[in-house]
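#data-curation
PF: Archiving a pair of folding outputs for the training set. Convention for this channel: one message per protein, sequence first, structure tokens after, nothing in between. First:
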Amino acid sequence: MKRSIVPVYYLLLFLIGTWVMVHYELSRERVVNWQRTYLPGDAIPFGTQVLYRLMPGVTGGEPPERISQSFYTYYKRATGPFNILYIADEIKLTPESVSQLLEHVSRGNSVFLSARQFCKILPDSLGVKLGFHHVSLSEDEGISRYPMNLSTHRHKVSVDTLFGDRLFYTGRHVFEFSADTLPHVRELGWLNQELVNFIEVAYGEGYVYLHTEPAVFSNFFLLQGVGVEYTEELLSYMPVGKWVWNEYHNRGRQVVSSPLRFIRSEDSLNNGYRVLMVTLVLFLLSGARRRQRAIPVIRPPENQSLKFLYHVRDLYLKSKNHKAISLHMIKDLKRYLQAHGGALADMRQEDMARLIRHKAAVSQEQAREWAGKVEEIKNETRVKTPQLFQLNRIIEKIKKQ
């Protein structure tokens, strides 16, 4: 049968596709992910992996516990005192979560929230108005240059040139309140030295910290070395104890996770997946056809036991050792008589005659004659061929009856 060369083409196509994919991955320009996730596990510029690793030194304990569910759901199974940390681009709390959160704070716990946008119900519950400050740009500044000066009681940092247009918004949320009417609210940080963007609100026996610039906690900000003291001062207000980092508002819409979804989400893995699918389809079209071949006939093995006995017989006859053959024949006869007439450990001539008479149904004289002939051949020193044949005839007559 002629050997098919289709598998060779398939292998060659697979190698070419693999080489093209590897060459493309090595030569293409790497794109930096500037998405503002603020997730503790993300090492991208606007992730918070660096902050997560610094948290034990700030809180004086273990790393924060990470959760990805609403505070209302988590609080049902939580035990013991703990503080809550929110860092997200936007935080939208339900009325049930706000009520449960403030009840938790009133028992002596703290919550730290840093987001560009807050839900209105939380500042309203604390008696603070959430205002909006529009950014005014001159014609020669463009969107890559706008004033963004952050300050606290001890530190001041200008980050307008650090982030460039990656954090450009048409405006920013600030807090508006009167310290005379709200003595439980304290100003801790400002935007452009005038607008309050970081406050502390005493609620019950605990405190709520609200901050409107989450970018200062990002990897990009902390690793640049500019304004790290500013971030450290913000963190200094966090009390020592157990902290829970809530990621519920960072992840957005939850989707079903699977290995295939992860492969399709990564460019390099997705390209490899496409090459694999194309080569698999080509193989199914060209190389997966059934190759017909002759089905061999498997014959069952023959029973060669009888032929083996014939060979053994011929060997004994050719060796002229008739005495050994006669002894085997007499031994076999005794076993036969014992099986049909009774088991005798030591069979004498009289016992053999009785068993032959019972099995062959012959006269007592005939049985004694056959038994005497068998005993005579047994006692012979050398058995001749006629005697061997005579013994064989006697045994056949006994067994035929």
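PF: Second:
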Amino acid sequence: MQLGDIMLVRGMGVISASLSPAQKLIYSKSRSSHVIFCLSYGCFIHSAGVGGGAFDVCIK
């Protein structure tokens, strides 16, 4: 992953499961429910239901 990379993913929770089909009303090929933006190697920011956003460091 590099700075600026954007990932469209689908969560595994109840809300994510309902967002994907709801988005198909706007874009029929939609499969994602979540957007993750890469700030640097292993550092990501993404939307969170409560509070609006989250910052995660995921280095393996």
